[in-house]
Amino acid sequence: MVIDKPRGLTSHDVVARVRRVFPKGTTIGHAGTLDPMATGVLVVAIGQATKLVPYLTAADKEYEATITLGIATDSLDADGRETARAGVPSTWRAALDGALEIERNRIMQDPPIFSAIHAHGARSHELARRGEAVELAARAVAVREIAITKLGEAEISVRLVVSKGYYVRAFARDLAIGVGTVGHLSALRRIRSGAFSITESIELAAMTGAPPKLDLASAARRALPVIMLTDIGAAHASAGRKVPLDDMSAVAAGEHAWMDAEGHLVAVGRIEDGAGCVVRGFTRPPP
Q: Which of 35, 77, 174, 247 is catalytic?
């Protein structure tokens, strides 16, 4: 299901609230953490769908963001402690196009120290809150699109499409530096996560009873390319055995969602040594 996460809650908080409306012991997870300050699309996986989380998380994300110039914070967003102030030069708009071009071509990004990245045996944000020095290696990222949506006196609103692992807070920091000042992320809304859009989300506060959710096979189709199996191939995959290539509708590199003739998800698998190998198996509904 797709939740429209409200401001002030962690992704873990959202999962805890969703858990209340499902039977005790139901496995629940989420795909792609949102900071407490952020709102918008949080894909929540129920039951067997949690096995799809790595593939859902790997997808590109789309955001609407606002950067406030002139004030820096330790967390790089509006929830952080102010660490510096700087004048906003009158030339900042003239410098904006060049700064944006640098960000559009960014392939390595220095992540915020207030993050969930592990460093020295702990989460980076835990070390930072204890006042310990934190050094994080730059991470490979990809920027698909950055578009200006609004300019204020000292604010920049943008829409971004970026890869997994990209920190919009770090973008706010770097863009502000690029126009000659400091800055922080003052608003963030995720409007798309992979194939899941804000238009299909449900509000957490309005969730009562058993909320509507996408069926497992449909979720898999959104997360992965599909290969169909013959009845014999589906039987092999269900038992965790290798699947002969003749029992697959296509032979392609990478991991795929394997479906049976009825359209049920049988497994996530890949080709190895001339046969299909199960990476993650799923229980099909009874005939």
A: 35
